[in-house]
Amino acid sequence: MIKSMPLEKNTNQFLVGLCLVFLMSAQIAEAGFGISPPYVQNDSLVRNSYYEQSIWLGRSEADEEVRVEIEKSVPGANDWITIDKGSSFVLPKGKKQVPIIIGVRVPGDAEVGSYKGNIKVRVIPTGAKSQGQVSIVLGAQIDVDLDVLDKVIYDFKVWKVNIPDLEEGHKLLWLFFPGRISFTTEIENLGNIEVAPTKIVLEIYDTRGEGLLETLEATEMEKVPPFSTERITVNFPTRLPAGAYTANFQIFKGEEVIKKGRLPLSVLPYGTLPDYKGYGFAGLNFFDKASVVLVGLGAVLITGLSGYWIYRYWKKRRKT
């Protein structure tokens, strides 16, 4: 009898513990929490580069307000990592999902190598303590894997391309202001430095794709930051009259054509599109620009001479 009591006591404790585990598991499953994607990875960072990634925090139930606490543990790179919402913020009632942006800014004196660790995310109900209830803390982990290199990677992909409708050029006095072709393209930077296409070439044909009318080329354009995807716009001046055309395009990376194709081009009569802006002075041809400069110099010269003669007349009149 004396020897059987510890066994009965241990059995009861085991059953009670098993019930608690079952209840806690049920509550955790009911108020599930997850993150997507569960990692921050980049294997091509360089010194002074910046990388960011969006992480979505989600919960199955949103019937109460919760506090989110974030703790970084990446040896050697903790100071590089920032969270846009901070290390602690409130997820309000009724909101099941919220994004956070994790940024990585590599300093100029960073050592080349691998930096691994994790970012722990905990979710704590804010109303549990005030109601005298046991708070169930849910959590997840974001794995961090970063590599800092000492070499430059120049690479990008071209996704969408588009040419919206435009207006034909128009005359103002003797000057002809051309229309503006806005060639837009979406660039995904796969490297670790700013990139842009080396060159974009447009060849404008009639609607049948026959009879070359204009050849336009651009080598200067805005650049896309590392590890990001952005839309850039390249503007070309055109002297085409209103009508329908076909534009063959080529996008270069170095000497290589990485994307080419054909797009419809619609030139509408002047004044058709609201808020449309054609080319200004930069779109004028050489002779028009030269004439504007000459007219401007002539106006300055005439103004100067007029002022000089007025001054002499005034001075002479004052003496008499």
Describe the structure.
The protein is of the alpha+beta class and 320 residues long. The protein folds into two domains: 31-148, Immunoglobulins (Immunoglobulin-like), CATH 2.60.40.10; 156-285, Immunoglobulin-like (Sandwich). 19% of the residues lie in helices and 45% in strands. It contains two helices and 19 strands. The strands form five sheets. A five-stranded mixed beta sheet has the order 2-9-8-4-6, with no helix packed on it. A five-stranded mixed beta sheet has the order 11-19-18-15-16, with no helix packed on it. It is elongated, with a radius of gyration of 34 Å. It starts with a helix and ends with a helix. Mean pLDDT is 82; it is low at 1-31.
